[in-house]
Write a structure and sequence with these properties.
Elements lengths: L5 E9 L2 H11 L3 E8 L4 E8 L2 E8 L14 E9 L2 H10 L8 E2 L6 E6 L5 E6 L1
Parallel strand pairs: 1-4, 5-8
Antiparallel strand pairs: 1-5, 2-3, 3-4, 6-7, 7-8
Length: 129
């Protein structure tokens, strides 16, 4: 059984928000779908599309540590997969011996999601579409 439909988005935590925004929009040609400043986290979230398709989220966090594995560190934040039903996806992962976080709801989109990890600890996400 393959529950995945597609890759939903790629999230990247940057070390310099203005520089990254300029690079992705002016150099690579992504268009801005939405830009949110999250005051409680002193963080920007920039949603980007390529040819009308939502592809990348750019996040900024103050003093983000270098990474490889911390969830709020500079670098690739996570890889998200689109699914029809996040609970079904979570149960499927569990049946394969893969633990995931509790299901959360995105406060801006109202969509449900959960995180789990690959064998090397890379954060992966199931995102309900």
């Amino acid at each position: 059984m393959n529950i995945l439909k597609s890759i939903h988005h790629i999230a990247i935590i940057c070390s310099d928000y203005k520089r990254s925004k300029k690079f992705y929009t002016e150099v690579l040609g992504f268009s801005i779908v939405q830009e949110i400043y999250r005051e409680e986290r002193d963080s920007y979230k920039l949603d980007l599309a390529l040819h009308g398709q939502y592809v990348i989220e750019i996040f900024s966090f103050p003093n983000a540590p270098e990474r490889p594995s911390q969830p709020e560190a500079a670098g690739l934040r996570h890889l998200a997969f689109a699914v029809n039903d996040v609970e079904e996806g979570r149960q499927y992962l569990k049946s394969k011996g893969i633990e995931s976080e509790n299901i959360r709801v995105d406060q801006h989109s109202g969509k449900r999601f959960t995180f789990f990890a690959d064998p090397d600890g890379l954060p992966l996400e199931l995102y309900e579409v």
